[in-house]
Amino acid sequence: MSKRAQAAMARREDRRAARERLAAVRAELREARVRRKRALFDAREQCRAERIATRERVRAEQRERLAALREAGRAARAEARATCSKRLAQARAIRDDGARARERVRAEKALQGDLRRASRDEEHACARQTGPRETDDDVRANLPSNRAPLFDRVRRLIKAAPRTESFLR
């Protein structure tokens, strides 16, 4: 073989080696693209799965907190009801105290009325026993003349016997 043929063969060999290297680089590039695509897909899927898991954890925690909050609300309402019931009972007791006090006042008034009636009955009995009642004219005759107008103004109020003495008192 000649030098020229050897040089051509060497060039062909170099081109073939270059094509092979180029094919190897292209294959590596394709493989890198596929790996990148898979890695991106896997990363997205993993992120999505983590987001879903996080969402579920947050929801579970929210449910737990809401349940605890509801329970705290129930307890607070029950406590408020108990306090309110206690206050109502105290207020009702005041009403009962008031009713008892009113009853005592009523009983006292009834007793006073009974005593007044008994006293009046005694006065009337005494007046009936002393004799007939003095008339207005009898009283005027027994009074000094300057007191007669005053007696005329108050005569209806004087009931006790003897009327002249009651008026002068």
Q: Compute the number of strand runs.
A: 0
**What pattern of helices and strands is seen along the backbone?**
HHHH
In the predicted model, the low-confidence regions spanning at least 5 consecutive residues are none
What proportion of the residues is helical, as a percent range? over 70%
Describe the 3D structure.
The structure is a single chain. The protein has 169 residues and is mainly α. The chain contains four helices and no strands. The chain is rod-shaped and about 190 Å long. The relative contact order is 0.03.
Provide a quick synopsis of the model.
The protein is mainly alpha-helical. It has helices at 3-130, 136-142, 148-154, 163-168.
Task: Give the tags.
169 residues, mainly alpha, 0% strand, rod-shaped
What is the element layout, followed by pairings?
Elements: H1 3-130, H2 136-142, H3 148-154, H4 163-168
